[in-house]
Amino acid sequence: MPSSMRWLATVIRIAIGPVLIGALTLPLHSPRASTDLALVLGLVLLAAIHSAYWWDPWRRKPQHAAAALGAMVVINLVLLNLLGLAQPLLWLYPALVAGAGLRAPAALVAIALTALAAAAPLALEGGIVHPIGPMDPADALGPSHSVLLSIILAGLGMSAVRQLIAVNADLHETRAELADLAVAADRERLARELHDLLARTLSLIAVKAELASRLSARGDAAAEELLDVQRLARQAVRDVRQAVTGSFAPSFRAELAAAAAALDTAGIEAKLDVDPAQMDAAHETTIAWAVREAITNVVKHSGAKTCWITIRAVAGATTLDVEDDGRSPGEAIFGIGLNGLADRVQTLGGTLRVERREQYGFRLRVQLGSLASASPKGVHAA
Predict the structure, then answer these.
(1) What is the rounded distance in angstroms from the CA atom of residue 178 to the CA atom of residue 368?
(2) pLDDT band at 133 (very low <50, low <70, confident <90, very high)
(3) Topology of 253-382 in CATH?
(4) Of 39, 125, 303, 329, which is most buried with the most CB atoms under 10 A?
(5) Taking the CA atoms of the chain, what radius of gyration do you get in angstroms?
(6) Which residues 6+ apart lie within 8 Å of 371 measured at CB?
Protein backbone atom coordinates (compact mmCIF):
# COMPACT_ATOMS: atom_id res chain seq x y z
CA MET A 1 0.00 0.00 0.00
CA PRO A 2 1.30 3.49 -0.78
CA SER A 3 2.51 5.21 2.38
CA SER A 4 0.22 8.15 1.64
CA MET A 5 -2.82 5.97 2.56
CA ARG A 6 -1.63 4.98 6.02
CA TRP A 7 -3.34 8.00 7.50
CA LEU A 8 -6.74 6.48 6.65
CA ALA A 9 -6.39 3.67 9.20
CA THR A 10 -5.56 6.22 11.90
CA VAL A 11 -8.60 8.32 10.97
CA ILE A 12 -10.86 5.26 11.20
CA ARG A 13 -9.47 4.28 14.59
CA ILE A 14 -10.16 7.79 15.91
CA ALA A 15 -13.47 8.46 14.14
CA ILE A 16 -15.21 5.35 15.42
CA GLY A 17 -13.82 5.71 18.93
CA PRO A 18 -16.80 7.76 20.32
CA VAL A 19 -19.14 4.80 19.69
CA LEU A 20 -17.06 2.60 21.98
CA ILE A 21 -16.57 5.34 24.55
CA GLY A 22 -20.31 5.98 24.60
CA ALA A 23 -20.95 2.27 25.16
CA LEU A 24 -18.49 2.23 28.08
CA THR A 25 -20.35 5.10 29.76
CA LEU A 26 -23.76 3.40 29.60
CA PRO A 27 -23.17 1.18 32.68
CA LEU A 28 -22.15 4.30 34.63
CA HIS A 29 -25.54 5.96 34.03
CA SER A 30 -27.63 2.96 34.94
CA PRO A 31 -28.16 1.00 38.16
CA ARG A 32 -25.36 -1.38 39.01
CA ALA A 33 -25.84 -4.93 37.81
CA SER A 34 -23.94 -8.19 37.92
CA THR A 35 -23.33 -7.95 34.20
CA ASP A 36 -21.43 -4.65 34.34
CA LEU A 37 -18.01 -6.31 34.60
CA ALA A 38 -18.78 -8.62 31.69
CA LEU A 39 -19.94 -5.59 29.65
CA VAL A 40 -16.70 -3.71 30.32
CA LEU A 41 -14.54 -6.75 29.53
CA GLY A 42 -16.46 -7.36 26.32
CA LEU A 43 -16.06 -3.74 25.22
CA VAL A 44 -12.34 -3.75 26.05
CA LEU A 45 -11.89 -6.97 24.07
CA LEU A 46 -13.79 -5.42 21.13
CA ALA A 47 -11.58 -2.33 21.31
CA ALA A 48 -8.44 -4.48 21.40
CA ILE A 49 -9.45 -6.46 18.32
CA HIS A 50 -10.41 -3.24 16.54
CA SER A 51 -7.09 -1.53 17.36
CA ALA A 52 -5.03 -4.60 16.44
CA TYR A 53 -6.73 -5.06 13.08
CA TRP A 54 -6.62 -1.39 12.10
CA TRP A 55 -2.97 -0.98 12.98
CA ASP A 56 -2.01 -2.06 9.45
CA PRO A 57 -5.22 -3.24 7.74
CA TRP A 58 -4.24 -2.92 4.08
CA ARG A 59 -1.51 -5.54 4.28
CA ARG A 60 -3.64 -8.15 6.04
CA LYS A 61 -4.95 -11.26 4.33
CA PRO A 62 -8.70 -11.99 4.00
CA GLN A 63 -8.26 -14.78 6.57
CA HIS A 64 -7.22 -12.19 9.18
CA ALA A 65 -10.26 -10.07 8.37
CA ALA A 66 -12.54 -13.11 8.63
CA ALA A 67 -11.09 -14.00 12.06
CA ALA A 68 -11.49 -10.44 13.36
CA LEU A 69 -15.00 -10.24 11.90
CA GLY A 70 -16.04 -13.51 13.54
CA ALA A 71 -14.69 -12.47 16.93
CA MET A 72 -16.43 -9.08 16.76
CA VAL A 73 -19.75 -10.65 15.75
CA VAL A 74 -19.64 -13.06 18.69
CA ILE A 75 -18.74 -10.24 21.12
CA ASN A 76 -21.56 -8.03 19.79
CA LEU A 77 -24.13 -10.83 20.03
CA VAL A 78 -23.14 -11.39 23.64
CA LEU A 79 -23.06 -7.68 24.54
CA LEU A 80 -26.25 -6.62 22.79
CA ASN A 81 -28.47 -9.70 22.95
CA LEU A 82 -27.35 -11.52 26.10
CA LEU A 83 -26.10 -8.74 28.34
CA GLY A 84 -28.61 -6.17 27.08
CA LEU A 85 -26.23 -3.36 26.07
CA ALA A 86 -28.22 -0.71 24.19
CA GLN A 87 -25.66 0.39 21.62
CA PRO A 88 -26.47 -1.12 18.18
CA LEU A 89 -23.86 1.07 16.49
CA LEU A 90 -21.22 -1.34 17.81
CA TRP A 91 -22.04 -3.31 14.66
CA LEU A 92 -20.11 -0.64 12.77
CA TYR A 93 -16.90 -2.32 13.95
CA PRO A 94 -17.42 -5.68 12.18
CA ALA A 95 -18.97 -3.92 9.15
CA LEU A 96 -15.83 -1.83 8.65
CA VAL A 97 -13.61 -4.89 8.98
CA ALA A 98 -15.75 -6.77 6.45
CA GLY A 99 -15.54 -3.91 3.97
CA ALA A 100 -11.80 -3.38 4.42
CA GLY A 101 -10.58 -6.97 4.56
CA LEU A 102 -12.89 -9.23 2.56
CA ARG A 103 -13.11 -9.50 -1.21
CA ALA A 104 -16.35 -9.15 -3.11
CA PRO A 105 -18.85 -10.80 -2.99
CA ALA A 106 -17.92 -12.08 0.48
CA ALA A 107 -17.65 -8.48 1.71
CA LEU A 108 -21.15 -7.62 0.46
CA VAL A 109 -22.67 -10.68 2.13
CA ALA A 110 -20.88 -9.99 5.41
CA ILE A 111 -21.94 -6.34 5.42
CA ALA A 112 -25.57 -7.24 4.69
CA LEU A 113 -25.69 -9.88 7.44
CA THR A 114 -24.05 -7.50 9.91
CA ALA A 115 -26.58 -4.79 9.11
CA LEU A 116 -29.47 -7.22 9.54
CA ALA A 117 -28.07 -8.46 12.85
CA ALA A 118 -27.97 -4.86 14.06
CA ALA A 119 -31.36 -3.72 12.77
CA ALA A 120 -33.46 -6.85 13.36
CA PRO A 121 -33.66 -6.59 17.18
CA LEU A 122 -34.62 -2.92 16.93
CA ALA A 123 -37.29 -3.72 14.34
CA LEU A 124 -38.73 -6.45 16.56
CA GLU A 125 -38.72 -4.23 19.63
CA GLY A 126 -40.39 -1.40 17.73
CA GLY A 127 -43.12 -3.63 16.35
CA ILE A 128 -42.14 -2.99 12.74
CA VAL A 129 -41.99 -6.66 11.80
CA HIS A 130 -45.38 -7.63 13.35
CA PRO A 131 -47.23 -4.36 13.93
CA ILE A 132 -50.33 -4.51 16.16
CA GLY A 133 -52.11 -1.71 14.40
CA PRO A 134 -51.66 0.75 11.55
CA MET A 135 -48.16 2.27 11.53
CA ASP A 136 -47.24 5.74 10.49
CA PRO A 137 -44.54 5.81 7.72
CA ALA A 138 -42.42 8.04 9.91
CA ASP A 139 -42.36 5.35 12.60
CA ALA A 140 -41.23 2.75 10.06
CA LEU A 141 -38.18 4.86 9.33
CA GLY A 142 -37.11 4.83 12.93
CA PRO A 143 -33.94 3.77 14.78
CA SER A 144 -33.70 0.40 13.04
CA HIS A 145 -33.67 2.08 9.62
CA SER A 146 -31.00 4.58 10.70
CA VAL A 147 -28.78 1.85 12.13
CA LEU A 148 -29.26 -0.32 9.05
CA LEU A 149 -28.40 2.53 6.72
CA SER A 150 -25.37 3.62 8.77
CA ILE A 151 -23.84 0.15 8.87
CA ILE A 152 -24.43 -0.56 5.18
CA LEU A 153 -22.98 2.78 4.09
CA ALA A 154 -19.97 2.37 6.38
CA GLY A 155 -19.25 -1.15 5.15
CA LEU A 156 -19.75 -0.37 1.46
CA GLY A 157 -17.74 2.82 1.78
CA MET A 158 -14.84 0.93 3.31
CA SER A 159 -15.09 -1.72 0.59
CA ALA A 160 -14.85 1.04 -2.03
CA VAL A 161 -11.84 2.51 -0.23
CA ARG A 162 -10.12 -0.89 -0.20
CA GLN A 163 -10.67 -1.28 -3.94
CA LEU A 164 -9.39 2.25 -4.53
CA ILE A 165 -6.27 1.48 -2.52
CA ALA A 166 -5.72 -1.74 -4.51
CA VAL A 167 -6.07 0.15 -7.81
CA ASN A 168 -3.72 2.85 -6.52
CA ALA A 169 -1.14 0.21 -5.56
CA ASP A 170 -1.45 -1.40 -9.01
CA LEU A 171 -0.89 2.01 -10.61
CA HIS A 172 2.25 2.53 -8.53
CA GLU A 173 3.57 -0.90 -9.56
CA THR A 174 2.71 -0.26 -13.21
CA ARG A 175 4.45 3.10 -13.12
CA ALA A 176 7.55 1.50 -11.60
CA GLU A 177 7.50 -1.24 -14.25
CA LEU A 178 7.14 1.35 -17.02
CA ALA A 179 10.06 3.30 -15.58
CA ASP A 180 12.17 0.13 -15.53
CA LEU A 181 11.15 -0.68 -19.10
CA ALA A 182 12.03 2.85 -20.19
CA VAL A 183 15.46 2.56 -18.58
CA ALA A 184 16.01 -0.86 -20.16
CA ALA A 185 14.92 0.43 -23.57
CA ASP A 186 17.26 3.41 -23.29
CA ARG A 187 20.14 1.14 -22.30
CA GLU A 188 19.38 -1.14 -25.24
CA ARG A 189 19.26 1.86 -27.58
CA LEU A 190 22.54 3.19 -26.23
CA ALA A 191 24.26 -0.21 -26.47
CA ARG A 192 23.01 -0.68 -30.02
CA GLU A 193 24.07 2.77 -31.17
CA LEU A 194 27.47 2.59 -29.48
CA HIS A 195 28.09 -0.71 -31.23
CA ASP A 196 26.87 0.59 -34.58
CA LEU A 197 28.83 3.82 -34.26
CA LEU A 198 32.11 2.53 -32.84
CA ALA A 199 32.52 -0.93 -34.32
CA ARG A 200 33.57 0.31 -37.75
CA THR A 201 35.59 3.24 -36.41
CA LEU A 202 37.54 1.06 -34.00
CA SER A 203 38.08 -1.55 -36.70
CA LEU A 204 39.57 1.11 -38.97
CA ILE A 205 41.74 2.39 -36.13
CA ALA A 206 43.06 -1.13 -35.65
CA VAL A 207 43.75 -1.48 -39.41
CA LYS A 208 45.42 1.94 -39.58
CA ALA A 209 47.53 1.26 -36.50
CA GLU A 210 48.64 -2.09 -37.91
CA LEU A 211 49.53 -0.46 -41.22
CA ALA A 212 51.48 2.32 -39.45
CA SER A 213 53.35 -0.32 -37.47
CA ARG A 214 54.34 -2.15 -40.64
CA LEU A 215 55.43 1.06 -42.36
CA SER A 216 57.53 2.02 -39.36
CA ALA A 217 59.14 -1.41 -39.30
CA ARG A 218 60.16 -0.98 -42.94
CA GLY A 219 61.41 2.53 -42.29
CA ASP A 220 58.63 4.10 -44.38
CA ALA A 221 56.82 7.24 -43.29
CA ALA A 222 53.78 6.35 -41.20
CA ALA A 223 52.76 9.91 -40.33
CA GLU A 224 49.75 9.93 -42.64
CA GLU A 225 48.38 6.72 -41.19
CA LEU A 226 48.86 7.97 -37.65
CA LEU A 227 47.03 11.19 -38.53
CA ASP A 228 44.15 9.03 -39.78
CA VAL A 229 44.18 7.16 -36.48
CA GLN A 230 43.92 10.47 -34.62
CA ARG A 231 41.10 11.62 -36.88
CA LEU A 232 39.19 8.40 -36.41
CA ALA A 233 39.64 8.55 -32.63
CA ARG A 234 38.26 12.08 -32.55
CA GLN A 235 35.35 10.98 -34.72
CA ALA A 236 34.66 8.14 -32.30
CA VAL A 237 34.49 10.61 -29.41
CA ARG A 238 31.99 12.76 -31.33
CA ASP A 239 29.92 9.71 -32.19
CA VAL A 240 29.77 8.65 -28.54
CA ARG A 241 28.60 12.11 -27.48
CA GLN A 242 25.86 12.08 -30.10
CA ALA A 243 24.80 8.55 -29.16
CA VAL A 244 24.51 9.48 -25.48
CA THR A 245 22.31 12.49 -26.28
CA GLY A 246 20.32 10.50 -28.85
CA SER A 247 20.98 13.10 -31.54
CA PHE A 248 22.89 10.93 -34.01
CA ALA A 249 21.13 10.23 -37.31
CA PRO A 250 23.43 8.84 -39.99
CA SER A 251 23.35 10.33 -43.46
CA PHE A 252 22.83 7.85 -46.27
CA ARG A 253 25.32 9.49 -48.62
CA ALA A 254 27.87 10.05 -45.84
CA GLU A 255 27.68 6.36 -44.93
CA LEU A 256 28.27 5.34 -48.55
CA ALA A 257 31.36 7.54 -48.72
CA ALA A 258 32.58 6.23 -45.36
CA ALA A 259 31.96 2.66 -46.52
CA ALA A 260 34.06 3.17 -49.62
CA ALA A 261 36.86 4.68 -47.53
CA ALA A 262 36.71 1.86 -44.97
CA LEU A 263 36.85 -0.82 -47.66
CA ASP A 264 39.76 0.94 -49.33
CA THR A 265 41.65 1.15 -46.02
CA ALA A 266 41.12 -2.58 -45.49
CA GLY A 267 42.37 -3.36 -49.00
CA ILE A 268 38.95 -4.44 -50.27
CA GLU A 269 37.77 -3.25 -53.66
CA ALA A 270 34.41 -1.49 -53.44
CA LYS A 271 31.93 -1.76 -56.29
CA LEU A 272 28.94 0.51 -55.85
CA ASP A 273 25.74 0.30 -57.89
CA VAL A 274 23.54 2.91 -56.28
CA ASP A 275 20.36 4.50 -57.58
CA PRO A 276 18.78 6.35 -54.62
CA ALA A 277 16.96 9.00 -56.62
CA GLN A 278 13.47 7.73 -55.63
CA MET A 279 14.34 6.54 -52.13
CA ASP A 280 11.64 7.22 -49.55
CA ALA A 281 12.94 9.72 -46.99
CA ALA A 282 11.68 7.43 -44.20
CA HIS A 283 14.03 4.67 -45.44
CA GLU A 284 17.25 6.69 -45.64
CA THR A 285 18.31 6.45 -41.99
CA THR A 286 17.66 2.70 -41.76
CA ILE A 287 19.52 2.06 -45.04
CA ALA A 288 22.41 4.16 -43.71
CA TRP A 289 22.56 2.04 -40.54
CA ALA A 290 22.41 -1.10 -42.66
CA VAL A 291 25.32 0.04 -44.85
CA ARG A 292 27.37 0.84 -41.75
CA GLU A 293 26.71 -2.53 -40.10
CA ALA A 294 27.26 -4.54 -43.27
CA ILE A 295 30.57 -2.84 -44.11
CA THR A 296 31.74 -3.19 -40.51
CA ASN A 297 31.22 -6.95 -40.74
CA VAL A 298 32.93 -7.14 -44.13
CA VAL A 299 35.98 -5.26 -42.84
CA LYS A 300 36.20 -7.20 -39.57
CA HIS A 301 35.30 -10.74 -40.53
CA SER A 302 35.18 -11.45 -44.25
CA GLY A 303 38.79 -11.36 -45.45
CA ALA A 304 37.24 -10.44 -48.81
CA LYS A 305 38.91 -8.93 -51.84
CA THR A 306 35.78 -7.37 -53.31
CA CYS A 307 32.58 -5.97 -51.84
CA TRP A 308 29.48 -5.08 -53.88
CA ILE A 309 26.99 -2.51 -52.61
CA THR A 310 23.74 -2.33 -54.57
CA ILE A 311 20.82 -0.04 -53.79
CA ARG A 312 17.56 0.16 -55.71
CA ALA A 313 14.73 2.55 -54.86
CA VAL A 314 11.55 2.45 -56.93
CA ALA A 315 8.02 3.62 -56.10
CA GLY A 316 8.43 3.68 -52.33
CA ALA A 317 10.32 0.37 -52.20
CA THR A 318 14.00 0.22 -51.27
CA THR A 319 16.38 -2.73 -51.50
CA LEU A 320 19.95 -2.84 -50.23
CA ASP A 321 22.33 -5.70 -51.08
CA VAL A 322 25.84 -5.92 -49.64
CA GLU A 323 27.87 -8.90 -50.88
CA ASP A 324 31.47 -9.99 -50.47
CA ASP A 325 33.70 -12.74 -51.83
CA GLY A 326 35.36 -13.55 -48.53
CA ARG A 327 35.33 -16.66 -46.45
CA SER A 328 32.03 -18.28 -45.58
CA PRO A 329 32.48 -20.03 -42.23
CA GLY A 330 28.88 -21.16 -41.84
CA GLU A 331 25.57 -19.71 -40.82
CA ALA A 332 25.33 -16.04 -39.97
CA ILE A 333 25.57 -15.30 -36.25
CA PHE A 334 23.34 -12.48 -35.04
CA GLY A 335 25.19 -10.42 -32.46
CA ILE A 336 24.44 -6.97 -31.10
CA GLY A 337 24.98 -5.29 -34.45
CA LEU A 338 22.72 -7.48 -36.60
CA ASN A 339 20.10 -7.71 -33.87
CA GLY A 340 20.06 -3.92 -33.60
CA LEU A 341 19.75 -3.61 -37.37
CA ALA A 342 16.94 -6.18 -37.35
CA ASP A 343 15.04 -4.06 -34.83
CA ARG A 344 15.42 -0.97 -37.00
CA VAL A 345 14.27 -2.82 -40.10
CA GLN A 346 11.29 -4.44 -38.40
CA THR A 347 10.20 -1.06 -37.03
CA LEU A 348 9.57 -0.01 -40.64
CA GLY A 349 7.89 -3.33 -41.46
CA GLY A 350 10.84 -4.48 -43.57
CA THR A 351 12.83 -7.66 -43.89
CA LEU A 352 16.48 -8.43 -43.18
CA ARG A 353 18.12 -11.46 -44.74
CA VAL A 354 21.71 -12.60 -44.12
CA GLU A 355 22.84 -15.62 -46.12
CA ARG A 356 25.79 -17.32 -47.76
CA ARG A 357 26.28 -16.72 -51.43
CA GLU A 358 26.22 -19.68 -53.80
CA GLN A 359 29.99 -19.84 -54.27
CA TYR A 360 31.63 -17.82 -51.51
CA GLY A 361 31.10 -14.92 -49.19
CA PHE A 362 27.96 -13.49 -47.59
CA ARG A 363 25.02 -11.40 -48.70
CA LEU A 364 23.07 -8.98 -46.52
CA ARG A 365 19.77 -7.83 -47.95
CA VAL A 366 17.39 -5.23 -46.53
CA GLN A 367 13.99 -4.68 -48.13
CA LEU A 368 11.73 -1.81 -47.14
CA GLY A 369 8.39 -0.65 -48.48
CA SER A 370 6.22 -2.57 -50.93
CA LEU A 371 8.92 -5.14 -51.69
CA ALA A 372 9.04 -6.04 -48.01
CA SER A 373 5.24 -6.35 -47.98
CA ALA A 374 5.50 -9.11 -50.56
CA SER A 375 8.07 -11.01 -48.46
CA PRO A 376 7.75 -12.69 -45.07
CA LYS A 377 8.32 -10.14 -42.35
CA GLY A 378 11.20 -10.39 -39.94
CA VAL A 379 14.74 -11.67 -39.97
CA HIS A 380 16.11 -14.54 -42.01
CA ALA A 381 19.53 -16.18 -41.72
CA ALA A 382 20.95 -18.90 -43.85
Answers:
(1) 31
(2) very low
(3) Heat Shock Protein 90 (3.30.565)
(4) 39
(5) 40
(6) 317, 318, 319
